[in-house]
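Lecture 7 notes: from sequence to structure.

We start with a single chain of 110 residues. Read the sequence below before looking at the structure.
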Amino acid sequence: MQPFLARKLPVTGDVDAQIQADGPIHALDGSGWIELDNGSLYGEPVTRVHAQGTLANDRLSLASVTLSEPAGSAAANGSYDLKSRRFQVSATGAGLDIAKVDGWLRRVGP
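Now the structure, written as C-alpha cells:
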C-alpha cells in the first residue's frame, strides 16, 4: 500500500482487505473490512487487527475494530465525521499488560 500514500505508515505485516465503493472520488460511499496479521503497529508486535465499517455522507462508521497482541486485546466501535473532524469511540480491553503498552504510548503520544 505504501506506493499509494504520501507518507510512510508505521505498520508492517500481511494485509487482507475487501472494499466496495461507489460514487465520485470526492463523495465516495462504501463498505468493507481490512485485517493485519502477524505484524507491528508503531514498532509493537500485533497478532491481528481487524476493522469493519462503512463510509457514507462524509461519515466513516466502524462497526467493529479488534486488536490482539502480546500485551492483551481490545475492541472498539465508533465514527468519524470527515467534515467536522469530530469522532465518537467506545472501547473495551482485556488482559492488557500496562508495562508493554507504556512503551507504545510514549512513541505515538504528543
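Strands lie at 11-22, 29-41, 44-56, 59-69, 72-81, 86-94. Keep this in mind for problem set 3.
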